[in-house]
Design goal:
This protein is of the alpha/beta class. Helix content is 48%, strand content 11%. The protein has 19 helices and 14 strands.
Length: 530
């Protein structure tokens, strides 16, 4: 119903109380209801799952409709990101949030900074989801509160046209609440542990869970060495655990993103169980690095398998891990991805060692031969040196085309000496179009940067510290922070308003009328930023 219809409904309810509720303003009630559209995390999960499903269908129709997100490690960071998006683009369409397990480990653990190895408290993940949505809902309440003040001013001025315009804007208001793709790592234990954590994450509002095929207790960051994968059946049990959690909680549209780390993982902790030749366990084992042996050559404690009728001994390391054959990573990624999609996954994530569209596409082409609408979530990772990678890609392309590259040293292309060159400009253009190119050529539905706000916080703090504690003194803050906030219209320059002071004043007036002691009087210094 419309804002006005809702007011009439509440007025009817108040009248039914025989005068005992006459101190309640129906319009104030409706304003509070509009400012708090989502009553629970499950409301959010259902709403945002529907958005993602709609976006996935739009991408299938046209890959120009790819989606994007930035990783955010605090509710305020996520809130400011969405406020900025609405300010600059007028809509939050196809813009999500990413919750990075790396940043939870590094920034949100009671243990202090930790590496991305699933050592942080798993409860900190749903806690951050809840925090992010608390801040996004507060952004709604703040923005709508300003619209209500404008509505009151239009009424006081007798401006019927402006009043009608504001009422229409209220009825068509687009929330800051957007989908979160949330990192559940390798599931934090067995399938039951994964299910329990998945429930908490969904109840907090997550509509999309990203789970990876590494061993839980050996989990590593996707861009570090020493990654160990698990057989498909072990991984699929956790995928099913996530689906059960979604279905139990009534989020039938919930999205599961299955990540394969096989491209950079050369080890497995166990040999897969195989019942018949060619089954999924046998296919997993076919990638093991083995040597043929005879019964006489077997030693105590050897693990043996048969392959093509031959007795084989998988290569076992002192760590008791088994080794895959070199050069099988891409084949394993393809098998992982097809198997996941055939067993309940909705989206794929292939972790790569560099951002190269054709490398990604070479695997996706094979996957799409089996599952034509396969789609990727891709990590535009800060672990890549994007400048060096793309300059080297252009160097290699030029060399292949027969162009003269003698003015460039391929290994030193990161040097500032090359910043103004034709090669650098062409590389930057390829970086600029990477997301659109990847969406069109490599099936990338969603582009994310895992930990960008980790780096922006460090960079901006470094710049402020250098100026403020140096000769610039207070001018270092005023010139580079506050003045820029004012000039660029950054909402939190009015930090009292951003923290909810005006929302609180509204509530005080609802509750106490003219007796309300409000903070937004003439002595509030925030009026200097009007």
């Amino acid at each position: 119903m419309s804002y006005q219809d809702d007011i009439q409904q509440v007025e009817k309810l108040i009248r039914s109380k025989n005068g005992t509720w006459d101190g309640i303003s129906a319009e104030s009630v409706v304003r509070m209801q509009v400012q708090n559209r989502f009553r629970s995390g499950l409301d959010i999960a259902r709403y945002t799952a529907a958005i993602m499903r709609k976006d996935m269908a739009a991408y299938d129709a046209d890959p120009a409709n790819y989606t994007q997100s930035l990783g955010c490690w605090h509710g305020f960071i996520g809130q400011q990101k969405l406020i900025s998006i609405k300010k600059h683009f007028g809509t939050t369409d196809r813009k999500y949030l990413y919750l990075s397990g790396w940043m939870v480990a590094a920034l949100r653990s009671d243990f202090g900074p930790l590496p991305d190895q699933s050592m942080h408290e798993k409860t900190s993940v749903p806690a951050l989801i809840e925090e992010l949505y608390t801040f996004l809902k507060q952004a709604d309440a703040r923005e709508l509160g300003m619209m209500f003040r404008d509505l009151d001013a239009a009424r006081a001025a007798g401006d019927k046209a402006k009043e009608a315009s504001i009422l229409k804007a209220i009825d068509g208001y687009q929330t800051h609440v957007v989908p979160i793709i949330a990192d559940i790592d390798a599931g934090f234990g067995n399938a039951e542990a994964t299910y329990l954590l998945a429930k908490k994450m969904i109840e907090a509002g997550a509509c999309a869970l990203q789970i990876e095929n590494q061993v839980s207790d050996e989990k590593q960051c996707g861009h570090q060495d020493g990654k160990v994968t698990v057989p498909h059946e072990d991984f699929l049990a956790k995928v099913r655990a996530c689906r059960y959690a979604f279905m139990e909680l009534g989020v039938e549209d919930g999205i599961i993103v299955t990540r394969t780390d096989s491209l950079g993982a050369g080890l497995t902790k166990q040999i897969a169980v195989s019942h018949t030749p060619g089954d999924i366990g046998d296919q997993y084992n076919s990638f093991l690095d083995c040597e043929e042996v005879t019964p006489a050559e077997c030693k105590a404690g050897d693990v043996l398998i048969t392959r093509d009728g031959k007795l084989m001994r998988p290569k076992r390391l002192p760590s008791n891990l088994f080794q895959f054959r070199e050069g099988t990573g891409a084949d394993r990624c393809v098998l992982d991805s097809i198997t996941s999609l055939q067993n309940g996954a909705d989206l794929l994530w292939i972790e790569t060692e560099k951002p190269h569209v054709e490398q990604i596409a070479s695997m996706m082409d094979r996957i799409r031969e089996v599952i034509p609408n396969a789609k990727l979530v891709y990590n535009n990772s800060p672990s890549f040196n994007w400048t060096l990678n793309f300059r080297q890609q252009i160097f290699d392309a030029w060399k292949k085309e027969g162009k003269d590259v003698s003015a460039y040293d391929r290994e030193k292309l990161m040097s500032v000496d090359y910043d103004g060159t034709a090669l650098a400009y062409e590389a930057d253009e390829k970086i600029r179009t990477f997301q659109a190119d990847g969406a069109r050529r490599a099936g990338i539905f969603h582009h994310l940067i895992t930990l960008p706000t980790y780096h922006t916080a460090a960079l901006s703090t470094d710049n402020l510290a250098k100026e403020y504690f140096g000769e610039a003194g207070m001018l270092g803050y005023v010139l580079n922070v506050q003045r820029q906030e004012i000039r660029q219209g950054i909402a939190c320059v009015k930090h009292q308003n951003m923290s909810g002071s005006d929302i609180g004043d509204d509530h005080k007036e609802y509750f106490a009328g003219e007796a309300a002691l409000k903070a937004s009087g003439d002595a509030n210094t925030m009026h200097q930023f009007a």
